[in-house]
């Protein structure tokens, strides 16, 4: 009885049924949690995105001991949305699961249908895109760029938009042409900085970022991954600056740009030496 008192959900099977029952009780208008009751699809969406990034962060860091919990947090978001949808009579969690199950069956005819499994990964990707195009057409998404989610990170969405346009031939044939366009946009940005309004500066900066994303696509580089790696490198080297100053009993605020630049170069050289020794 003591264990049951500590666990008020003891009468529900463990796993997903238990999690769904917990969410149902949290959203109960009479006995639930006031915060959970007040939430809407729109208010929860940012948390859903945040939890997806935290899953990615655990994977990028190889923090496998954290991944289980982060996946649980992400699953909770799906359950939360499913509960709200059920309350509004839109659909329920089982419908969500069945819809994605049917989608996976439909998109893998070489596994669940009559098509041969004897395909390269590249051919499977082509077939996958054809199937998704048919799905978009069924949803009346007839324009080339329809269906590219607005909520994607801007760099990721830029690449997806560019890939869609490239499928119908709207693309630079050569990488060099993209580089030339980058030089042109950079010059326009400098002009905007010196002569135009802040709104025009923002516009020109956005144009430059968009073309840089396109260059990444032409080079086979994922801009999101490349920028993530650059962020990690900056963090690593700046931490080395901070560590060096801390060893002297100082902080970056007690230093100046010239000294910190020298410490940055030292950290960079140490990294290169470590790589060469591997």
Write up this protein.
By secondary structure, the protein is mainly alpha-helical. It has three domains: 2-106, MazG-like (Helix Hairpins, Orthogonal Bundle), CATH 1.10.287.1080; 143-221, MazG-like (Helix Hairpins, Orthogonal Bundle), CATH 1.10.287.1080; 225-277, no CATH class. 74% of the residues lie in helices and 0% in strands. The chain is extended and about 65 Å long.
- Share of β-strand residues: under 5%
Q: Indicate the CATH class of the largest domain.
A: Mainly Alpha
Radius of gyration: 26 Å
Taken from the alpha-carbon principal axes, the silhouette is extended
CATH topology of the largest domain: Helix Hairpins
The helix/strand class is mainly alpha
Total helical elements: 13
Question: Which architecture of the largest domain per CATH?
Answer: Orthogonal Bundle
Classify the helix fraction into a percent range. Answer: over 70%
Summed over residues and divided by their number, the pLDDT gives a mean of 89
Give the domain tally.
Answer: 3
Main sheet: strands, sense, barrel: none
- Euclidean distance between termini CA atoms: 60 Å
Tell me the series of helices and strands, N- to C-terminal.
HHHHHHHHHHHHH
Q: Count the E strands.
A: 0
Contiguous runs where pLDDT drops below 50 for at least 5 residues: none
The CATH homologous superfamily of the largest domain corresponds to MazG-like
Keywords: Hydrolase
Catalytic activity: ATP + H2O = AMP + diphosphate + H(+)
Family: Belongs to the nucleoside triphosphate pyrophosphohydrolase family.
Protein name: Nucleoside triphosphate pyrophosphohydrolase
């Amino acid at each position: 009885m003591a264990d049951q008192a500590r666990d008020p959900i003891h009468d529900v099977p463990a796993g997903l049924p238990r999690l769904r029952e917990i969410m149902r009780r949290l959203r109960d208008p009479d006995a639930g949690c006031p915060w959970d009751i007040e939430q809407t699809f729109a208010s929860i969406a940012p948390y859903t995105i945040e939890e997806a990034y935290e899953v990615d962060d655990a994977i990028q860091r190889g923090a496998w001991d954290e991944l289980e919990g982060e996946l649980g947090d992400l699953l909770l978001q799906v359950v939360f949305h499913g509960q709200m949808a059920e309350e509004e009579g839109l659909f329920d969690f089982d419908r969500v699961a069945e819809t994605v199950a049917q989608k996976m069956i439909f998109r893998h005819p070489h596994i669940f249908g009559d098509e041969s499994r004897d395909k390269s990964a590249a051919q499977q990707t082509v077939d996958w895109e054809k199937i998704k195009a048919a799905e978009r057409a069924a949803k009346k998404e007839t324009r080339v760029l329809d269906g590219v989610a607005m909520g994607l990170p801007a760099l990721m969405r830029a690449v997806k938009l560019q890939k869609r346009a490239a499928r119908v031939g709207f693309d630079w044939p050569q990488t060099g042409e993209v580089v030339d366009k980058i030089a042109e946009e950079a010059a326009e940005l400098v002009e905007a900085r010196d002569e135009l309004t802040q709104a025009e500066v923002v516009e020109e900066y956005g144009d430059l970022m968009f073309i840089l994303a396109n260059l990444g696509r032409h080079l086979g580089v994922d801009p999101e991954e490349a920028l993530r790696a650059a962020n990690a490198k900056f963090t690593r080297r700046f931490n080395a600056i901070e560590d060096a100053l801390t060893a002297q009993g100082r902080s970056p605020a007690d230093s100046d740009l010239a000294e910190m630049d020298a410490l940055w170069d030292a950290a960079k050289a140490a990294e290169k030496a470590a790589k060469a020794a591997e």
